[in-house]
Amino acid sequence: MSIEFDNNLPIYLQIMNFIKKEIVTGKLKAGDKIPSVRELAAELQINPNTVQRTFQELEREEVVETRRGLGRYVTSEEAKIMTIKKEMAGDLLDNFINGMQELGFSNKDIATIVAEAVEIKSE
């Protein structure tokens, strides 16, 4: 696992986003075991408390679940994983649309540009 940390965003959030991305892209599958706090802290060379906070937040969001004595696992709820995927897509779209609007494009122009780009990608 390799993450290039951005100094402008808390590390625990960056790790959360990375793990969520690994889940929605299928690199981590529903029910897969995730590394322990110690393993991940050593691998990323960060404080174990940061990893612990990451896992607590992921548990609070029901992205991972703790099985007593066995460790933490990716949720087995496919609907939850799809919800995470849609949230991530929404964030990407918001950033894209905001950026395009800052460049002066109208919503109609943005829709046209996206439709053309999708058509080119599908060829």
Task: Give your account of this protein's structure.
It comes from Paenibacillus lutimineralis. Residues 9-77 form the HTH gntR-type domain. The protein has two domains: 11-76, Arc Repressor Mutant, subunit A; 79-121. It contains five helices and two strands, in the order αααββαα. The chain has 123 residues and is mainly alpha-helical. Strands 1-2 form a two-stranded antiparallel sheet. Helix 1 (11-24) packs across helix 3 (48-60), helix 1 crosses helix 4 and helix 2 packs across helix 3 (48-60). The model has no long low-confidence stretch (mean pLDDT 94). It has helices spanning 11-24, 37-44, 48-60, 78-102, 107-122, and strands spanning 64-67, 71-74. It is 62% helix and 7% strand. The chain is elongated, with a radius of gyration of 18 Å. The two termini are 34 Å apart.
CATH architecture of the largest domain: Orthogonal Bundle
Q: Characterize the biggest β-sheet.
A: 2 strands, antiparallel
Distance between the termini: 34 Å
Arithmetic mean of pLDDT: 94
What is the H-and-E element order?
HHHEEHH
Please give the CATH class of the largest domain. Mainly Alpha
Shape designation: elongated
Number of domains: 2
Helix content: 55-70%
What is the CA-based Rg, rounded?
Answer: 18 Å
Q: Give the low-pLDDT segments.
A: none
| Strand order of the biggest β-sheet | 1-2
- Give me the count of strands: 2
List keywords for this structure.
2 domains; mainly alpha; two-stranded antiparallel sheet; 123 residues; Arc Repressor Mutant, subunit A; 62% helix; 5 helices; elongated
